[in-house]
Write a structure and sequence with these properties.
By secondary structure, the protein is of the alpha+beta class. 46% of the residues lie in helices and 12% in strands. It contains 25 helices and 15 strands. The strands form seven sheets. Strands 13-14-15 form a three-stranded antiparallel sheet. A two-stranded antiparallel ribbon has the order 1-2. It has a two-stranded antiparallel ribbon with strand order 3-4. It is globular and about 65 Å long.
Length: 523
């Protein structure tokens, strides 16, 4: 009899445990399914890192190709930040009490909580991503003064600048796998909602000044709702909808650490990583980390461009490295400043702004027929330009690893629009599928069939680079000395370095002279 009772009791316990497990699983499934497409767009976190299994989901910025960043044109050489900064490959570990004291002594408005989760995030930066921190310390000298000035204008805490560390590793051209772009990693709909211009020529999410103003407007909107900076920061990652769901599941509690278990997995480490970024960028010397020095000009000024202008025209006349122009003006996606549609800002080193003004007429006419012959400006009077005049129908062939968000981001449209134009029911799309898109051309029509006048210089360039159309929708490009995936991508509108890397099944961004690359042909 006792034996039967024990068996019956065991069966009851097993049934209760199974029921509880099912409730947990159904709750997690419900949480995932309730997320809308718009909310999921905020996620720019990665599951492809060796850290994921141990720590959890981390930002894509921590999986950045550090080798590529460190060999980019603007990082010249490694240098000590100051005489008191000792750099080597060994991290220095400290007891919890030291971390607590340091975080509490930082002049911050946003609470810098310390716990085991935050310590793990500090270890990621100080131990596993040391080269990335060196790069970001160097870039911070250029970008942080810009960001701090704008935060001041909006009356916001300066420590918010460290969110760019988590979002993009201070890379203004960073593009996430879900289509977020720029140092603040705005998704296309959110960027447009906050006043950023995004079309075939211009993507202001990549403009550090305008994107920072947009981020500040977002922060102020969210703070008006939550009145808690940690919740504002979390909402920047997953959207206010998911924050509200987590608050409901936490029985109305509004402290980040109380709602932590109810947040999407990709958001739970977001605030801890923000705190860790504040810490490591402040106390990097104590962990034997110093900045990589760059040759980015800290003194810059802007000029107003009122005509269509190509970067090569500026580089030739002012004798400026064209890569420097691209880094100072990352919002111009095709090396074209569309000053014909509206006055456009061009950032230059201070010493070159005066030269630009003196030689402005010469710059506008220099090689204009060669560089701008395939462009047709749309110069209708303001307010009379038809919508169809600024929209062009193009065809995009889906590459390996692409989804509707990444395609939409490239052409300045939305995933919803692509679904409507192509009769799709989901954001998944097969490799090789041809998608019809209607893109905003930024006031410039691309006349691909217009014959170009071939000059001796362009003929020599074509012969040297050996471009030839190949079958299967690809162009063959033979790598020249000094080429990089980034510089090659710049030659082809709508093509990114990542696209070329995927099209050629390259494991990294390294290429060598003489190597043949397949470039997807624009439709």
């Amino acid at each position: 009899m006792k034996k039967q009772l024990f068996i019956l009791l065991g069966l009851c316990c097993f049934t209760l445990l199974s029921h509880a497990q099912n409730l947990v699983e159904s709750s997690e499934t419900e949480f995932s399914e309730e997320q809308t497409d718009e909310e999921l767009q905020y996620s720019t976190l990665s599951e492809d890192s060796d850290i994921t299994a141990e720590i959890g989901l981390i930002p894509e910025s921590l999986d950045a190709n550090v080798d590529s960043l460190l060999h980019s044109w603007h990082v010249q050489y490694f240098s000590k930040r100051d005489d008191f900064c000792h750099d080597d490959e060994s991290n220095v570990f400290f007891p919890d009490s030291i971390y607590i004291d340091r975080l509490q002594s930082m002049p911050c408005i946003i609470p810098m909580t310390y716990n085991n989760i935050v310590r793990n995030c500090i270890d990621i930066y100080a131990e596993r991503r040391r080269s990335l921190i060196r790069y970001m310390l160097g870039m911070a000298d250029f970008y942080f003064p810009i960001i701090e000035q704008i935060l001041d204008e909006h009356g916001l805490p300066h420590e918010l600048k460290y969110l760019t560390i988590v979002e993009s590793a201070l890379n203004p051209t960073a593009l996430s796998r879900v289509g977020a772009s720029g140092i603040w990693q705005f998704m296309l709909p959110t960027g447009k909602n906050y006043g950023l211009e995004i079309n075939s020529l211009v993507d202001e999410r990549r403009d550090p000044v305008k994107a920072t103003h947009a981020a500040c407007r977002y922060f102020k909107d969210m703070y008006a709702i939550y009145e808690d900076w940690q919740l504002v920061i979390a909402s920047y990652n997953c959207g206010p909808g998911n924050i509200n769901k987590a608050i409901r599941r936490a029985n109305g509690k509004t402290d980040f650490w109380d709602i932590y278990p109810y947040l999407p997995r990709e958001t739970r480490l977001y605030v801890p990583l923000f705190i860790a970024a504040n810490y490591i960028m402040t106390y990097h010397c104590d962990h034997n980390l110093c900045a990589v020095e760059t040759n980015l000009p800290l003194a810059t000024d802007t000029v107003i461009v009122n005509n269509m202008l190509h970067f090569e025209q500026i580089a030739d006349i002012l004798d400026i490295n064209i890569e420097q122009l691209r880094v100072l003006n990352p919002q111009y996606q095709r090396d074209i400043v569309p000053g014909n549609t509206r006055p456009s800002i061009l950032k230059l080193p201070v010493r070159d702004t005066y030269t630009f003004i003196d030689k402005e007429d010469t710059i506008y006419t220099h090689r204009a027929e060669e560089l701008l012959a395939h462009l047709r400006p749309i110069n209708s009077p303001e307010g009379n330009t038809s919508k169809t005049a600024t929209r062009e129908k193009i065809t995009h062939t889906v590459l390996n690893g692409e989804n509707l968000y990444t395609v939409a981001n490239r052409y300045g449209v939305t995933a919803k629009d692509i679904r409507k134009w192509n009769g799709l029911r989901s954001n998944r799309v097969a490799k090789g599928r041809r998608l019809t898109l209607y893109v905003d051309n930024g006031g410039v029509s691309f006349a691909s069939n217009t014959a170009k006048k071939t000059t001796p210089s362009t003929a020599a360039t074509q012969k040297e680079s050996t471009l030839e159309k190949s079958e299967g929708g690809y162009i063959t490009y033979i790598v020249q000395s000094g080429d990089s995936l980034y510089s090659i991508a710049r030659k082809y509108p709508g093509i990114s370095a990542t696209t070329i890397q995927h099209a050629n099944n390259l494991s990294n961004s390294r290429i060598h002279p003489g190597q043949k690359l397949k470039i997807p042909a624009a439709g």
